[in-house]
């Protein structure tokens, strides 16, 4: 197949905030995906969506399939930009469609769907102006997040607040910096897990990855903050979580967590691939924090490949599985 990889290439730009490019992909990731596809006999090129006019590019070059890892460019629905263009041009692509990508990037809307489907998720409130009356049913501590960002952008240890005064101070800071509403949700004390879903003719729930932050005491950060994701493994900063895959779980809890992740994948309408982040409370309730339909695919650092390796896959196997899932879906649609 003739395949085009759509991506946002990570850059250096001191005029941008430190976390501006966090969702973008490194050359290492782009080269790894390209190499994996070529190893299976496909011809591959790539296009940086931030630097290119996609309409012009695809009208000139065409493609049998697009391998999409692009985050888009602007606004609350940016992850839908590339799929929307490809749908208009009738070019098939890997991964979720415009609706699912727009929905998943909006944490509050996703949580409303989870609640409607009786999928556990922490109680929450949206703050638009930063001075709203606080829902009296919410219990501190709360964690505050920009509502429409990924890769833990805007999140650090100060986002966990213990009083209304702290909450409104931090909420106004986020609103000012990120120009969007703030999600305030109950902080779940417990163990953290992430669960990968991979489709290829059938739906596989990959081995659960447990992220143990007890080894990060020096950093003072005990959850996935931006610094934790950006500088993971930095011993001087204390950002050294320990990974267990498969996770240290008994069979009953493992089954419960996998079922919740699969239900979340289906509720949001994800296709081909997703990764759901979960906190397991002290009373063994798996609370869904969020779902990512565009999980990182760095072969060395990203969580999703770690889970695929634990399932006995190679990196090339993983990339080909994502591609073939999209190919089979397109083929079935045309029959």
Descriptive notes:
There is one protein chain. This protein has 335 residues and is α+β, with helices and mostly antiparallel strands. It folds into three domains: 2-94, Rossmann fold, CATH 3.40.50; 123-186, Dna Ligase, domain 1, CATH 3.30.1490; 190-334, ATP-grasp fold, B domain (D-amino Acid Aminotransferase, Chain A, domain 1), CATH 3.30.470.20. Helix content is 34%, strand content 20%. It contains ten helices and 13 strands. It has helices spanning 27-39, 54-61, 81-89, 98-105, 107-116, 164-178, 226-230, 251-268, 303-310, 315-334, and strands at residues 2-7, 43-48, 65-68, 124-127, 142-146, 160-161, 182-186, 190-199, 203-205, 209-212, 242-244, 273-281, 286-292. Strands 8, 9, 10, 11, 12 and 13 form a six-stranded antiparallel sheet that branches. A four-stranded antiparallel sheet has the order 4-7-5-6, covered by helices on one side. Strands 2-1-3 form a three-stranded parallel sheet, sandwiched between helices. Strand 8 (190-199) and strand 9 (203-205) form a beta hairpin. The longest helix is centred in the last third of the chain and has 20 residues, at 315-334. The protein is globular. The mean pLDDT is 94.
């Amino acid at each position: 197949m003739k395949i085009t990889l759509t991506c946002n290439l990570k850059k250096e730009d001191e005029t941008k905030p430190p976390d501006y490019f966090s969702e973008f992909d490194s050359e290492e990731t782009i080269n790894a995906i390209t190499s994996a596809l070529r190893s299976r006999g496909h011809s591959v090129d790539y296009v940086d969506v931030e630097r290119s006019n996609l309409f012009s590019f695809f009208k000139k070059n065409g493609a049998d399939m697009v391998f999409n890892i692009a985050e888009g460019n602007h606004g609350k629905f940016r992850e839908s930009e590339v799929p929307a263009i490809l749908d208009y041009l009738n070019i098939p692509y890997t991964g979720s469609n415009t609706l699912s990508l727009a929905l998943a990037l909006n944490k509050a809307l996703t949580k409303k769907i989870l609640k409607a489907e009786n999928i556990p998720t922490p109680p929450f409130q949206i703050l638009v102006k930063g001075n709203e009356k606080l829902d009296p049913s919410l219990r501190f501590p709360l964690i505050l997040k920009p509502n429409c960002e990924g890769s833990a952008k805007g999140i650090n240890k100060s986002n966990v607040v213990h009083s209304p005064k702290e909450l409104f101070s931090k909420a106004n800071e986020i609103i000012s910096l990120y120009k969007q509403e703030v999600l305030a949700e109950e902080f779940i004390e417990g163990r953290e897990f992430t669960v990968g879903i991979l489709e290829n003719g059938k739906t596989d729930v990959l081995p659960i990855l447990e992220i143990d932050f007890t080894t990060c005491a020096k950093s003072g950060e005990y959850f996935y903050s931006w610094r934790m994701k950006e500088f993971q493994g930095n011993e001087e900063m204390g950002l050294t979580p320990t990974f267990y895959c498969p996770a240290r779980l008994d069979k009953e809890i493992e089954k419960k967590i996998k079922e919740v992740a699969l239900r979340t994948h289906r509720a949001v309408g994800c296709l081909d691939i997703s990764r759901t982040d979960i906190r397991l409370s002290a009373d063994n309730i798996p609370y869904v924090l969020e779902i990512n339909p565009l999980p990182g695919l760095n072969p060395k650092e990203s969580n999703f490949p770690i889970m695929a390796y634990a399932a006995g896959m190679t990196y090339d196997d993983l990339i080909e599985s994502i591609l073939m899932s999209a190919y089979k879906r397109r083929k079935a649609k045309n029959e």
